[in-house]
What we know:
A: 0% strand
Amino acid sequence: MIWQLDLILLVFVIVCAVASITVKDLLSSAIIFGAYSFFMCLLWAEMGSVDVAFTEASVGAGISTVFFIAAVFQTTRRTKD
Amino acid sequence: MIAHFEDVIIQTVCRILLPFIQLYGLYVIAHGHHSPGGGFQGGVILGASFILFCVAYDIKEAKRRMSEKLDTMFCSLGLIIYSGIGIICLVLGGNYLNYSRLHHILPVNPIDARSMGILGIEIGVGITVMAVMISLFLNLVSSGEHEEGLQ
Lengths: 81, 151
């Protein structure tokens, strides 16, 4: 574990998490959530848990982003609140 | 919904890339029991390759390659492989999913029988996860109509 790299990745994870729930455009929110999953995957790989990182990369960054985009196209782009 | 358009670059790149994605998914399933990966991740990669095909072409073309009937049959086939291996272990006198009992019907010693048993489980999980991911995508993107989707 390299704590400097850990800290940088954690800052990116928190920035992506906050941005993904505050942005008004739902399509942007889905894309930022994919970026959040990717940084989470890098963080897990850096901490030595390669199997969890693999699952996060394939399910979190791959499939769930496609599902979110498919769900956004069935509803509206903008949030109401 | 987005109008359908034919893009020769996207379709050609998708056609070239698809076999390699599917080969990688099969690699992840086959090496799941002694390296990172496994049935779930490999099944998701196999499902993602088919979703890429649905996005690059259209849903009618994709359903001509894999119909809903075949998809449901794959979904059940993986579950049958999983529970079948477990019940075979039960019949051979062990606990449910105790793979070392499989050395009575396989020509290997009990240690290798454990490796073969978990490989069968990974294959079953991979088939089911692939079929469920394809079914989830098709129902989500076309709101159950299976007529048109993200193209």
